[in-house]
Amino acid sequence: MATLVINCGSSSLKYAVFDNKEALITSGKHERLVVNPDTGESHGEAVTSILEKCRAYEITGIGHRVVHGGDRFHQANLINDEVLAAIEEFIPAAPMHNPYSLAAIRAAQKAWPDVPHVAVFDTSFHSRMPRRAYTYAIDHTIAEKHNIRRFGFHGISHQYAAGVAAGFLQRPMDELRLITLHLGNGASASAVEFGCSTETSMGNTPLEGLVMGTRSGDVDAGVLMNLLRTGEFDVESLDNMLNRKSGLAGLSGISNDLRELETAAADGNKQARLAINVFAHRARKYIGAYAATMGGVDALVFTGGIGENSASMRARILQRLEFMGVMIDEDKNLDASIQADNQFAVISTPNSRVDVIVVKTNEELMIARETQKVAAAQKKSAVAASAIDEIELPPIPIAVSARHCHLTAETFAALFGEDAEPTPLKDLSQPGQYACEEKVTLIGPRNKLEGVRLLGPLRNVDQVEIARTDEFRLGVDAPVRNSGQVSGSAPITLEGPAGIVNLTEGLICARRHIHMHPDDAALYGVQDKDEVSIAIVGGDRDLIFGDVLIRVKESYKLEMHIDTDEGNAAELGRAASGELNQSDIDEPADDDIYRNVAIGKKLEL
Ligand code: AMP
Asked: How many helical (H) and strand (E) elements, i.e. helices and strands, does the chain have?
C-alpha cells in the first residue's frame, strides 16, 4: 500500500511514493515542462510517465500539492467538483501554479480513477489567521469585492517544520508558540501559535514579506504607483521586476543563490554584502514582530534551502536576539549540516530560553501524511454513512456563553476579601461547574465591562473569557484560545468589592468547542482535539460553523459552546430558544452563563 505525492510547479513536477510507514519508496522530478518547447513535455504527459513508473506499487491515495485554496480550505480535502472549482477560481491569484495543478490532477484522476485524490493546500495552514492579521487597511468595500486579504503560502512547510520542532520539544503543538522561517528561493515567516498560524509574512500573493531569491518582499506600494507614473514601467514590467528581478538577485546584481553571494561577499563585493544584510535584517525584524504578536516564543525554527544550509545567514539573523532569551551555540550552528536522514538539529545552548531548531523540510512527506489522513477519514465516513440510515445521531445542544471568568483562590481573595468564599448560584450543564453570585468588573484601557460572572470552582490559573465585541469596548486585543491556553494572552484589570487585581495575562476569546463524554465521541466517530463543522438548525438562518474543537472528558456532557458574537451571527436570539432540545438553566435571566439556543448536527470531520 503506497501513497503517491504529486508536487506540481509551474515548470516542474516532482513526485514521491511513500509506504504506509512513511518510508520513501521512490521519487523523481520532471523539469522544464511546458516552458521548454524542445522537450514538448507537458504536465499531463509527465503524469502519464509517472503512472508507468508506479505500476509496480499498489497506490491507495494520491496527494496533490495545490498552492492556492484561498481561505476556503482549513485542511487537506478530498478532491471533488467543489475543490476543482475552487482551484479554478483561484487561478487569477496564482496564475503560475493553479492551472498546472489542475492539469496534473485531471491527468492523475484519469490514470488512477479508483483511488482517492486529495488536495493539500499551501494556504490551509494559514486559513485560521485572525481577521486583524489577514486584513489590509484599505477600503473594505474594495477588499470585499476583489477578495483582497492576506492568505499566506508555504503552509505545508511551516506546518511540517512546526510539527518536527514540537516533536523535539516533546510537547503538543497546541501548547507552543513557534516562529517558523522557511528561507529558500521563496521565503516566508510564520507565527505558529498553539498549533495555528496566526501571522505569516506572505500576503495576498507570495510576493509580500521577506527578501527572497528574486522577489522583493515588502515594498511601499507608493513606490509602485510612482514607477507607473514615470511611464518607464507598465504592469507587466513591474510584475517582472518585483517577482523575477528583485530580492537577492536584484540587490546583488549577481545571483539569486545565496552560496554565490556569500562567496562574492567574502571577496569584498559590496552589493552582495548589502543583499545579505537586508535579507537577515528583514528576517530578524519579523521574528521580533511575531514574538510580540504571540506575546512570547518557545522556539525558532529554520527550514528551506537557506535556513537548512547557511550557518552564516542563521547566525546573522539571530544576532542581538539575546534580549528575547535566544542563546546560540556557535559550534552547533556551524555543524548543523542537515543530512537527508537527519530530520533536525538544535543550535541553541541548553540554557537558551528559546530553542532554535533547524529542520529539513519535507513537503512531500507532509502531503503524504495529510493524504493518508483524508483517505482514512473518507473510508470511515463511508462506513458511517452506510450506518447512518440505521442510527439517527442525536443533535448537539448549542449554548451561547456569556462573558465570564475563572479565578484562582488568590485573585478571588484579593477581589472579594480574605474570608470570602465563592457562592454557588446554579449548576451549569458541565458537571461540577456552577455559576456564582459574585461578579467582577473588567477594566480595559478604553472602557469598563461590569457584571462579569465568576464560574466555580476556583482554578489554578486566572482566565477571563470575552467575545470579540467586548474586546472593542474594553480596547484590548485578546487572542482566540482554547480554554486553559492563557500563556501570552492579553492583560486585563479586574475590580471586585474588596480590591483591584492587574492580570498580566489571562484574557482570551474562547474558541468554539463541543464538550463530549467519551461515549458521545464514540457515537459521533470523533476524538479529543478533532475539528469538525457543525450546521446550526435552530436559528433563523442556516449557518455552518467550521473549525469547532472537540473536547472529550469523562466528566463532560454533550454541548457546544459559542460566544455571544457567534450566537448573534447565527441569529440565535432568545426567540430561537423554543427550539431547545434541552435547557439547563430555568430562569430567563440576563445573567445566564450558558444559554441553550439551538441544536447542531454534525456535518463533517
Ligand atoms: P529552496 O528554494 O528551499 O530549494 O532553497 C534554494 C536556495 O537555498 C538556493 O537558491 C540558495 O540560495 C540556498 N542554499 C542552498 N544551499 C546553500 C548553502 N549551502 N549555503 C547557502 N545557501 C544555500
From this structure: 19, 26
